[in-house]
Amino acid sequence: MITAKLRYLRISPRKVRLVTDLIKGLPVEEAERQLRFLTKRAARPVLKLLNSALANAQSNNKLAKENLYIDKIIVEGGPMLKRWQPRAMGRATPIRKRTSHITLILNEKEGSVAPEKKETEPTKVKIEKPPVKPEKKETDLLEELGRVEEEKKPAARPKPAPVHRPYPMTSQAKKKFFSRQTFGNIKKYFRRKSI
């Protein structure tokens, strides 16, 4: 059994228990993952405590992380800081700023075997040399260059067809043309866009 304690945490025990109840009985790796992505404020100090307990297990008892799980996690109330808040008609209301003491106990899974360290020989990597290409003659190179240059030339774009307008391009001509437009027998007096 590996123990780690966190004392005088300035979060109320009720709020801390919401986090600790989630990870009770979980393997260490799973509990670590849960705490890392939990949005509660108490998650960060509890994660720090879990890492501390894990470090104790690895350095003092030479236990592997994969074999450990959270056996118990106990949250108790610590001393209260007592403050006062002024209220109406000259009264005062007490404020209790609560603290927590957390005790975390890790245990090893039954039937787990300590990992054996195998001494491995460094593997030899064979480096293969690229195959040697036969040298090309100057004439072959020049021919290839000529082909590449021909391929790089952009194809000539066809010219766009001229747009047929029933009126000359001057603004006076446009005005005259559009003022003559009619809808049925009604002459168009109102135009939304001016020309």
Account of the protein in words:
The longest helix has 18 residues, at 43-60. Strand 3 and strand 4 form a beta hairpin. This protein has five helices and seven strands. The model has no long low-confidence stretch (mean pLDDT 81). A three-stranded antiparallel β-sheet has the order 1-5-2. By secondary structure, the protein is of the alpha+beta class. The protein has a domain at 2-108: Alpha-Beta Complex (Ribosomal Protein L22, Chain A), CATH 3.90.470. It has helices at 13-23, 28-36, 43-60, 138-152, 171-179, and strands at residues 2-9, 68-77, 81-86, 92-97, 100-108, 182-183, 186-187.
Tally of helical runs: 5
- Per CATH, which architecture of the domain at 2-108? Alpha-Beta Complex
Principal-axes shape call? flat
- Count the strands? 7
- Lateral strand order in the biggest sheet: 1-5-2
| Rg for CA atoms | 41 Å
List keywords for this structure.
alpha+beta, Ribosomal Protein L22, Chain A, 5 helices, 195 residues, two-stranded antiparallel ribbon, 3-stranded antiparallel beta sheet
At a glance:
The protein contains 5 helices and 7 strands, in the order βαααββββααββ. It has 195 residues and is α+β, with helices and mostly antiparallel strands.
Strand and helix map with partners:
Layout: E1 2-9, H1 13-23, H2 28-36, H3 43-60, E2 68-77, E3 81-86, E4 92-97, E5 100-108, H4 138-152, H5 171-179, E6 182-183, E7 186-187
Antiparallel strand pairs: 1-5, 2-5, 3-4, 6-7
Helix pairs in contact: 2-3
